[in-house]
Amino acid sequence: MWLLTILLVVIYFPVFALLVIYGANLYILILITFWRRKRLDATPSEVTPFVTVQVPLYNEQHVSERVIDAVAHLDYPLDCLQIQILDDSTDETRDIVAARVGYWQAQGLDIEHCHRVDRSGYKAGALAKAFPTARGEYIAIFDADFLPHANFLRETIPFLQHDPHAAFIQSRWEHLNLTASWLTRLQGVALDSHFMIEQYARSRGGFAFGFNGTAGVWRRTAIIDAGGWRDSTLTEDLDLTYRAWLHGWHGLYRQDVTAPAELPPTMTGFRRQQARWQRGSIEVARMLLPDIWRSGYPLLAKIEATIHLLGPLVTPLMAFLLISYPFLLLLGRLIPGFVIPPNSLDFLGPITLAPPLFFITSQILARRSTLNAVVGVVLCQIIGAGMAMNTLRAVIKALLGQHGEFLRTPKFGDKKETVWQSKYHVRADPGIALDIVWGFFALLAAILGLIHGHNFVTLYGFVSCLGSWWVAGWTILPDIRAAFRAKRLAVA
């Protein structure tokens, strides 16, 4: 019994401290956002550098044609522009891409269809293979669901020319289908908080911040100096960012330059995307945190980089506090004089206000509709807590060093009415069973918290319960609908 007590308390208080640090850091990022508010400036150069635009894609039947047309319409001198469509497709997307590339070649554009017969290394492998044939001094990258504005290169390249130590420049993501559903609205809130505050504050504060894998431009020499693209993580963009940072490079961020993209319209797609991002971040942390702490960067920069890379641990740590709660109550009954650590949870109040304030501030800065923004913030909190088990599975796989498959997030373009019938629709995974079980446990913890007067446990338990069941239901419902639809068609 004493061994269990020591184990729980020894783990409990460091977890508690880490959550306090994370919440406090959100306040710091908000303060930096307002305190160091300024716009990047660059002196226009008379030299027009050669630029290569790369579009990596894989089985993107619904969006491949429109992204090719978008990059073909970029306003940049044709004699200084090369476009590479990095196509790993195994379905009819390959023919769609070939036809559209052929059309633009006939218009005099320097565009090529780079098709691989295998998908080794996934996106990182495609970028690495095409790199030797990319002739650009700068390399712009756009994922298949992005639609860059025509003036994108003219609004980004001069800043890299102006700052020879900048490895890349990142633009802000906007959302093509923000108002399609409440699922897309809550995703918009989460991404707005990342781009309006996190990216902005880290870039202005002089800290490392991540290249987001798309809607940005890299300096060719920085990629070479950092060791090139590699497929050792599921987030090759974050990996390259920190390797470049360790070699003395830094990034630039333009919040006023946007690139619209599609938000996953299904919960299964959203879960898959989040799991990949969170798993990749922990993988990068495993590989690079020792080098970061051995580097010559200031202590504050190392701490901020650590918080950045280990951010996916927050939700599982919160889940741990909830899991330990009933056992700590039991120990309080069995061991005379045992001080129940859950009493300390009520002191998390100011810290737990940080994420809502973080989201609300981003919506104000992004100038979103007030009512929709408020609902989106509430949903973001509920669904975020409900994704605990999805995040936990991703984190465990990363910590165990399992090399996972790069599972693409399905994109549907303008085919929203046929999302559930599309061959790209991802069906519910067995992990939702754990979400449902977790919902019952969270409900139990909430009831115990209510009985014992622990307000934080009560609130977080109920939110986790609601979120978990909501996520599970949102995941299963499309498959149930599809099954009934198929049954009706069979009968007909």
Walk me through what this model shows.
- There is one protein chain.
- The protein has 492 residues and is an alpha/beta fold.
- Helices cover 57% and strands 10% of the residues.
- It has a 7-stranded mixed beta sheet, with helices on both faces.
- The protein is globular and about 80 Å long.
- 44% of the residues are buried.
- The mean pLDDT is 89.
Percent of residues in helical segments?
A: 55-70%
Q: So what's the oligomer here?
A: single chain
Shape: globular
The major pleated sheet works out as:
7 strands, mixed
Gyration radius from CA atoms, angstroms: 24 Å
> Structural class per helix/strand content?
alpha/beta
Mean pLDDT: 89
Instruction: Give the terminus-to-terminus CA distance.
Output: 64 Å
Figure out the total of helices: 17
Given as residue ranges, the uncertain stretches (5+ residues, pLDDT < 50) are none
Give me the strand/helix succession. HEHEHEHEHEHEHHEHHHHHHHHH
